[in-house]
Amino acid sequence: MAGSTFGKIFKIATWGESHGAGVGVVVDGCPAGLPLKEADIQKELDRRKTGQSKVTTTRKEADKVRILSGVFQGKTMGTPIALWIENHDADSSKYELIKDLYRPGHADYTYQMKYGMRDYRGGGRSSARETAGRVAAGAIAKKLLAHYKIKVIGYTRKIGPFSAKKIDFNEIERNIIRCPDKAVTDKMIDHIMKIRKKGDSVGGVVEVIAKNVPAGIGEPVFDRLDADLAKAVMSIPAVKGVEIGVGFEAAEMLGSECNDAFVLKGKKISTKTNHAGGILGGISNGENIVLRLVVKPTSSINKTQNTVTQKGKKATINVEGRHDPCICPRAVPIAEAMVALTLIDHVMRQKLSRL
Amino acid sequence: MAGSTFGKIFKIATWGESHGAGVGVVVDGCPAGLPLKEADIQKELDRRKTGQSKVTTTRKEADKVRILSGVFQGKTMGTPIALWIENHDADSSKYELIKDLYRPGHADYTYQMKYGMRDYRGGGRSSARETAGRVAAGAIAKKLLAHYKIKVIGYTRKIGPFSAKKIDFNEIERNIIRCPDKAVTDKMIDHIMKIRKKGDSVGGVVEVIAKNVPAGIGEPVFDRLDADLAKAVMSIPAVKGVEIGVGFEAAEMLGSECNDAFVLKGKKISTKTNHAGGILGGISNGENIVLRLVVKPTSSINKTQNTVTQKGKKATINVEGRHDPCICPRAVPIAEAMVALTLIDHVMRQKLSRL
Amino acid sequence: MAGSTFGKIFKIATWGESHGAGVGVVVDGCPAGLPLKEADIQKELDRRKTGQSKVTTTRKEADKVRILSGVFQGKTMGTPIALWIENHDADSSKYELIKDLYRPGHADYTYQMKYGMRDYRGGGRSSARETAGRVAAGAIAKKLLAHYKIKVIGYTRKIGPFSAKKIDFNEIERNIIRCPDKAVTDKMIDHIMKIRKKGDSVGGVVEVIAKNVPAGIGEPVFDRLDADLAKAVMSIPAVKGVEIGVGFEAAEMLGSECNDAFVLKGKKISTKTNHAGGILGGISNGENIVLRLVVKPTSSINKTQNTVTQKGKKATINVEGRHDPCICPRAVPIAEAMVALTLIDHVMRQKLSRL
Amino acid sequence: MAGSTFGKIFKIATWGESHGAGVGVVVDGCPAGLPLKEADIQKELDRRKTGQSKVTTTRKEADKVRILSGVFQGKTMGTPIALWIENHDADSSKYELIKDLYRPGHADYTYQMKYGMRDYRGGGRSSARETAGRVAAGAIAKKLLAHYKIKVIGYTRKIGPFSAKKIDFNEIERNIIRCPDKAVTDKMIDHIMKIRKKGDSVGGVVEVIAKNVPAGIGEPVFDRLDADLAKAVMSIPAVKGVEIGVGFEAAEMLGSECNDAFVLKGKKISTKTNHAGGILGGISNGENIVLRLVVKPTSSINKTQNTVTQKGKKATINVEGRHDPCICPRAVPIAEAMVALTLIDHVMRQKLSRL
Description:
The structure is a homotetramer of 355-residue chains. Chain A has 8 helices and 18 strands. Chain A is α+β, with helices and mostly antiparallel strands and 355 residues long. Chain A has a single domain, classed as Chorismate synthase, AroC fold. The first copy, chain A, has a 5-stranded antiparallel sheet, covered by helices on one side. The first copy, chain A, has a 5-stranded antiparallel sheet with strand order 9-8-10-16-11. In chain A, helix 1 crosses helix 4, helix 4 packs across helix 8 and helix 6 packs antiparallel against helix 8. Chains in contact: A-B, A-C, A-D, B-C, B-D, C-D. Strand 11 of chain A pairs antiparallel with strand 11 of chain B, so a sheet runs across the interface.
């Protein structure tokens, strides 16, 4: 039931499958007056698209976006903005061979059990291709956030055993893995390439930071900013966990270590540390929002795996093809999009909190 | 804006502050015909209430629930069920002393920035007292899930450095920390008691398992079961992270390790391992749902901390009082409630997925 | 499924039955900082309550409201406001006699068919008693509208064949029928009293005007102001129709008659006539909002009627008791409440329409 | 804010303007397994399209629909269904002349006041062209209703002074005015043609009947079936009123006349009359749902009207062009669509009402 709609104020409805006419999104709730052109959106889609480097899938999709409504004379009108990204790589013949097999780690089995049918071509709706619609909508969210001086920045924090220790924002888009620490970038890339050669895949951690979020954003007790961010990024395919600030480290901390002391920075109330990741009681406190999400290794691997057929027979499968050996580099713009969509919804909701 | 409403089908609206007339909840969307009495709800509230053991706060609140509507002749009628838990411990004098100070780790500052005012008595709406409403509604969700044979079980997985290695469901409610592994229970309790003596607090990890969830539950692409569970538990005060299945371990895994092979158990399609935590592509696969959440150490500590006043002056604060030294034991029923509320919403949504 | 929740921004959830512990409402989404006391709400409830005059039911219910949450130091806090109106007239013995009979015009049969059960005491949830929760929430909406200078005024426009020709706002609360035209007030009252004596009831038309609604309120294409107002008043028990501006007269009008010419009143753009009832394209145009709703004659009459039993046998019924002979006088504050709730939701939504 | 989304279960989001790339809709929440092809939708669009007869506008738009997603192998998949109807009649030059003038009866002024800007070409989003998206989504709703044996039938009940006295369903689609009474069809058409010649327009009443709706559909107390139907049809451009069953006639009726006696038809509980229009207490009672809506005369007329410019100067305007002299014939399929969308939402919600 209606699970492809996201947001309460800046509301989006995405649609589309891997091998249909395309993927798209309707943004219902963008305020009037925002300058918007296709290039604003294309820029973000290009960061998500396939074939952008040797650490991504080598499939090539143009991912050209078209604005179908909602913009007039270069500005949003306050009416729904429909975006369409046409599909071109429509060769679904290879999927005919595995249409009766459930690919391990994929949603073939669960879609079949949910709907009693499924589009087996490229995963259908469960394909990561669907996220193009999110990135497109997220691009508008980012533009709107920029109006409020808010900036959302994502990067690869960890690949296998290699973690970025340093966060240099300038470094991120300079390397194909979107790593902010020059010192580990090559190690990460080598690690991926080695695993790819074996037909295998590897997981990683993406971190997203939101800067200049004013204090006061978030709607307790359920629509807390952290809760809505958690939902947003957990809804990205392959994400298996999310944490804010110190996250899971909090389990071993004492209150006296974990609490962020309030201090004055000039006249501004701030905190000495940011263990909270910018959120207290579900509401932003004016510090950077910091969250991390873990992505599992790509489920499609060029290795023989045990599975069963749709009719319930034992079988083996080898998901040949051009898969991402690691999802992180392309997950970065998707995670940014989901964070941006969540933030703009909450920034707008805050306009309603006080008389 | 309207952040105290949760769920799309089994919808709840909670209300209440720490020092007002009480806390409560309206459940709008419970189907007609479910046997329900106050004792069903009281049982769960008693697991959450204060003063239940030496590892919880020593404050005593009766937390007696009253059903005000929606039940007739022992059954739900399909109409809204209003529940009220009256407040009794209404001594707010001690809060007068700190009403101009922002307590570190608490939501005093962020509520002030959001609403331009706040109820400083016991944290007002940001008090964990609010969760009584969730537990009460969750008790109804649990009863309804039981109708579908689904069971939700939570327990303390980790306190500071001590982790349960074994999960014995029978053990959980036999000890005050709700630990499922007899071997570490005493260590956990000792650890908490030592920290309490120092006026400090400690964090931990709670794990929740849902059994007998049929395959097919969850609504991609945004209202995935994992995404909605993540939101649900992240909305609990003090939770800083959530993970499903292998969670953050996935970052270091290979696809060939992480993928759960499909196997036949008799005629039932199942998976050999459960790294996915029972969810693939945002939809349950019939295995146990397994999720973990990390709770930070209680923010209220009997130690002097640096802070600022509401007027922006440097100050120190010592949050004296009877605080929980560790939130885990009482967080268990709250986490179960949020998982149950999410599951029942999705179980009902699944009725709408196929013709 | 969850039909007792209303509004998107200023969201209310009502609860309660005729013979339970009471009726109430949770208002989730009222901004912080609004001065609010129980008397503000009581004032409106007193206009709705039973036994207020000879043209209403002679049952007496105190309808005392209690604010359970959301208000601190005389102001709303931005957190949910829970209101409770306790039931006192709990004598349900007379309903035992008719518990197997479906009362014509009432919802006994439809509730039974919907839920497979029903609370037969006083109509249960289908009782007009439920509207006390609406009026209580509406009182808060009215206070909030007053902050924006918007005023909502309702009155009885027609009873049987007698219509008010003149609208004198000062007259409305001076007479027991809430008629704005002194010349027909007595005729209306006499008409009702005559019908009451025969054990019968009569219908009527209520008109509601909203003044000072600025141009620009309403959210096409579905959440138009007129559409949401129509839903709001049609959700009141016994309402069978709603019209805006010229309403059903438009069927016989020409475009050249019906169009309201734009004119300048000083520097303000206005319209020469107000056939549109203040709404163009679903958005307010700055003129008075004018809507009318028709209420059917009270279904409970002291006359023998044909019906069937729950088991499907022919029967007759006479719904003895103290019924309103005409719903209009008490429907006026209910209609005002529903209009106010709709308007405040839209006034707040408008804050989100432009950059 | 997000006003172009409709429905809770079978949720639609429409988009598009009169002179953009087209209009469309995303249906999020259609269950899997419904046979669906473009022809099913085209059939309904053809009933709405321009240029279909001498009583409609002579503009010609092909209104060809394309299914972009959600259907595989001829069946819905449970995933979002995106529909696109491309615009072709894109000549907007004539609108340049009146872009600074507010057309009386139109939404030019109110859109400008709401959004601070507007697309003046053909009314932009406020154009009735937008309703093509509704009709397209409604066609799917109708197919789904047919699965439950429910049929929605609309027709022109009244044009100016001429009313259909007899309802012959077979007659409706045989005449260009969609009138069910052969005896008045020609009078209605003549009336329209005479008014058209004068450059003027005329209003009318459309009636919609839903057959075979089982008892028990509707969600009190706010999402009553009548309330949601009222919103649905009132959201159609030019509609100024809606009534159910006896509607506004109820004002002059007595309870003893208005109440529908329950009777047995065989073993089925039914009512002797259907003054209620099939709805009691907001829930269907198993009789035909009967509702009427009034449409105002088309606002665009070839006559000189007084107005003001955007800058606030007095002016006159003559909205030349090819306008519908009467909206009724083309409003019939739109009204049916809105009723169908409301009904399917409620039919599906009913699956959740009982254990």
